[in-house]
Amino acid sequence: MDPEDLKKILEQALWNGGDFADVFVEHRIRRQITVDQRKMEELHWGIEQGIGVRVVRGESTGYAYADEMDVRSGLQAAQAARAVVTQPHPQRISVTPEYRSYDRGLLTPKIPLETLPEDRRVEVVRRAEEAAYAYDDHVLNVRVSYSEDLRRFQILTSEGVLTGDEQPVIYFTVQVLAQRGDRRHLGRKRVSIKGGFELFDQFSPEDVAREAAREAVTMLDAQDAPAGEFPVVLEKGWGGVLFHEAIGHGLEGDTVAEGSSFYTGKLGQKVGSELVTLLDDATLPHARGSYNVDDEGTPSQKTVLIERGVLVAYMTDIRSAKKLGLPRTGNGRRESYRYPPLVRMSNTYILAGETPPEEIIRATKYGIYCKSFSGGQVDPTSGTFTFTVREAYLIENGELTVPVRGATLIGNGPEVLKTIDMVGSDWDYGPGTCGKGQWVPVTTGQPTLRIGKITVGGRA
Amino acid sequence: MTLKDQALKLLKWTEKKKFQAEVYMVWSESVRASWKNDDIDRVDFRRSQGVGLLIQQGTRTAFVDSNDLSDAGLQELLERAIALFRFAEEDPGYVMPEGPLPALTPMKLVDLTYKQLTPEALVDHAKSVVQAYPRSSLIGLKKGSAQKSRAHVVLVTSKGMEMERWSTSFSLGAEVRLDQKGEKMEGYAGWSRRFWDQLPPADRVAQEAFQRAKDVLGGKPIPTDEMPVVFAPVVGTRLLWAIFQALQGENLNKNRSFIAGRLGKPLFSPLLTVIEDPAMEDAPGSTPVDDEGVPTQRKVLVDQGVPKLPVDNLRSAKEGGREPTGNGFRSYRYRPGIGLTNLYMQPGEDTPEEIIASIDRGFYVMGTLGFGLDVVSGNFSTGAYGRLISNGALSDPVQGVTISLGLEELYATIDRVANDLEFRGSLATPTFMVRQMKIAGKD
């Protein structure tokens, strides 16, 4: 949209006054290809576009959006959003837009999606499907999903910032259902990139499929997980989701400012084991959680949150930074123009330590080795969490023995952070989608690490 | 130009290109106000529109969507659909809705006072929720919210289906955080209805949110054990949803349900009867017709422990060799899925107090964390909080435990069902008791 039109809409939003306002214009093209039960279940192309206008007065926010991309709709949205200014102080606020580019090429694709022939997408899906069925006779069903989202946005704020970003993302998921007798397991592998089709040069569709199939078939032999309290070793990678959920959300500035976080008022305090350094880094090139600029026009950055067990920073957006008197960290994100920004994580991970991962298993007499989770939930106020384990093994006398199923980890995030007693020298991360009333793409990462003691809800 | 005119225009353009088509178009609007402590928290206005276009030639189909309803936007959408069609495969499960639309049960879905409820009035209602909390030094944060929304849906197809539906809905919510000696607990309560004057008064909403938090504040894990578990109404709806999922035709067809192949067998407790009723005055999901033009119907899905009826849209019915049941619901962005109108567990005769009084030692679940439901394997395991039941009465608050049981066994051992059924959303259960569940807590 023409910057002059954005300016008109913004000035309309500020007509009665207000502390801050922005106009967010977004256009995205989504593709979805899904095969299931050897059939093309979904072949889909879609457009989503619109304008969102935000007006902030003190603690109050007015937000309005329209699905139409024209100036008139933008002006109507602006008039609706300013309803939050209940005692008007009419003043002509003039904004001078100054264009800034924060594009550091973090997401620039090698193989752009705009010009990619459609059949290339169908081909990777079919290749994965074939490889998964070929993996083992016990593979009952294979579901492959290819999602693509070409997101572009423009933003103008009442501080005069005019900027934008292009954020193409691919999410590729293979799910394999294996069955033997009455035993079943659904294995899953996901890969993602903010970039282009070069994703499949890094991860061949066959490898992704075989990893999902391996999990599904292996877990058919699983025994019921034991219940009780014992050490749990989390394998490097997506297991970091536990810290994303149970710690990360508590370090989001809006929750902190509201006093709803366990970590409110604890800057500078020791909150975890000295082995733990936790970061949020939106500048990891091509990672699913990365961006050049956040959804309120603040450039992305790498933020150390917990350094050797000491809480050193919170993640912020413009509002929470102001309220907490802290720097802006570029974590203001929104699912789309249909939502006002919230403080959100990007790529959140624990830094690698020094212990070889084999050593961690060897040092554990009895416990559970978690390779992947199927999901989890956290009560943000108390930090109490429950995670369901998808693939896990029993550790007996320092060795992985049998696969176990039906385990849930239940604990308290802040307490778990203190009971991490071994941190591996390996490291990996994995993709996901984080929900906080709005969905945004993220990654979480960690080295292999051990939680000294945690409650395991099992069925044996 | 009306929404229906636009839909018919796109249909005509598509037919000119020698395709048959299904056009689903929606326009919706909502205004929500929330109040926090002593000021406005948020005022949100949403105006959405969109179109889902499915094109067909022979038995092949392709699907595209857009929220650009301008002529140029619709033209581009059609071009994309045709480009995508090159990759379309045989889609024998697709059934194009066929007209004419059958006669429908007359039903009121639109509250004519919608326009009178201004944004300012909604702000006042949100504020009145906040003012209705009991006076308590425990309250660290208090919120109230009020919302109105309306939608207009159009479905037209090359086989003569023309369906239009208008509806409104309203909701009132409360959210409170209690702080006590460094411990925090949040409580929520919310109701939603098609008509504004069917919502409960603000003080009831506020009181319930407060009580839910207060009842479990300071809760601690209990030792790992097995005991009877009583589910409060707001928690039981998740287990009701799991039954609905297990009865979805698509899951049955694909053998993704633990009920697959066992319809008509007495799998569950004779006290368990599950009913879908699309014509309830005091529930928010009521509608005479689904999104595929199929009339909705009252159905006993589980009859005294016997799962009887699958729920189907046009596709799952065809693939499973059954009749559609009026459960095809969708957003414009996707092909129809399988959804519900109003679903409830038939109430029994006991009061919740009588059920609790019958238990020496048990667990009263007031909230759960995580989903923990797996309809493929039939496992149920979730984090939970609530109160300990001791000698027939509620006692200490409990937090940080996991409850688990196989889903089938859980439904089979529902030993008592209370009489306190009330719709908050479109799913409702009364209080009910499960004979024995494993509770993992402290060792």
Give the helix/strand layout.
The complex is a heterodimer of chains A (460) and B (443).
Chain A: H1 3-13, E1 20-36, E2 39-57, E3 60-66, H2 71-81, E4 98-99, H3 118-135, E5 139-157, E6 161-180, E7 183-194, H4 199-202, H5 205-218, E8 223-224, E9 228-234, H6 241-246, H7 253-257, E10 278-281, E11 302-307, E12 310-311, H8 318-324, E13 332-333, E14 342-343, E15 347-350, H9 357-362, E16 366-378, E17 384-396, E18 399-405, E19 408-412, H10 413-418, E20 420-423, E21 428-435, E22 439-446, E23 449-457
Parallel strand pairs in A: 4-6, 8-18, 9-16, 15-22
Antiparallel strand pairs in A: 1-2, 1-5, 2-3, 5-6, 6-7, 9-23, 10-11, 10-15, 11-12, 13-14, 16-17, 17-18, 17-19, 19-23, 20-23, 21-22
Chain B: H1 3-16, E1 20-36, E2 39-57, E3 60-66, H2 71-85, H3 119-131, E4 139-157, E5 162-180, E6 183-193, H4 202-216, E7 225-231, H5 233-247, H6 249-253, E8 274-276, E9 299-303, E10 306-307, H7 314-320, E11 328-329, E12 337-338, E13 343-345, H8 352-357, E14 361-369, E15 373-374, E16 379-390, E17 393-406, H9 407-412, E18 414-417, E19 427-428, E20 432-440
Parallel strand pairs in B: 7-14, 13-19
Antiparallel strand pairs in B: 1-2, 1-4, 2-3, 4-5, 5-6, 7-20, 8-9, 8-13, 9-10, 11-12, 14-16, 15-16, 16-17, 17-20, 18-20
Characterization of this structure:
The complex is a heterodimer of chains A (460) and B (443). In chain A, 19% of the residues lie in helices and 42% in strands. In chain A, strands 1, 2, 3, 4, 5, 6 and 7 form a seven-stranded mixed sheet that branches. Chain A has a six-stranded mixed sheet with strand order 12-11-10-15-22-21. The N and C termini of chain A lie far apart (61 Å). Chain B contains nine helices and 20 strands. In chain B, a hairpin with a 4-residue loop joins β15 and β16. The chains are: A alpha+beta (460), B alpha+beta (443). The interface between A and B is large, with 71 and 68 residues. β2 of chain A pairs parallel with β3 of chain B.
